[in-house]
Design a protein that fits this description.
single chain; 45% helix; Nucleotidyltransferase, domain 5; alpha+beta; 4-stranded mixed beta sheet
Length: 117
């Protein structure tokens, strides 16, 4: 089993539990050069809010999308957009990534922005 398969196996267990609970989830994906966050409805069929380092708004503030500063900015942005959509409580779906580094920074910034999870 390689690194990607291991991560996806860990993600599958979390997503199965969140689907069972029908919880609105904050899904995070990170690549080497960017980080993405989406708030997905309880049924899993609709994206309610999204933010990433690919967006022009974020690119002007942070030139490198693959660091903690960019992750913190995306966390604040996703919290603002969730509040605008009327969402206050979410379940955190880290997609099998370790809760460390950029994923942790994004989560903490989202909490500071007012999201509860």
């Amino acid at each position: 089993m390689n690194k990607k398969e291991s991560r996806l196996r860990r993600a599958r267990k979390t997503r199965a539990k969140l689907a069972e609970l029908k919880a609105v989830r904050l899904a995070v994906f990170r690549s080497n050069s960017h980080i993405y966050a989406q708030i997905i409805s309880g049924c899993g069929a609709k994206v309610l809010a999204a933010a990433s380092t690919v967006e022009a708004v974020v690119r002007t503030q942070v030139p490198n999308g693959g660091n903690k500063a960019a992750a913190a900015l995306v966390g604040k942005l996703i919290a603002e957009r969730a509040k605008a959509a009327g969402i206050e409580t979410v379940a955190f779906d880290r997609a099998g990534f370790l809760y460390h580094g950029r994923v942790k920074t994004l989560a903490e910034a989202a909490r500071e922005g007012g999201l509860k999870f």
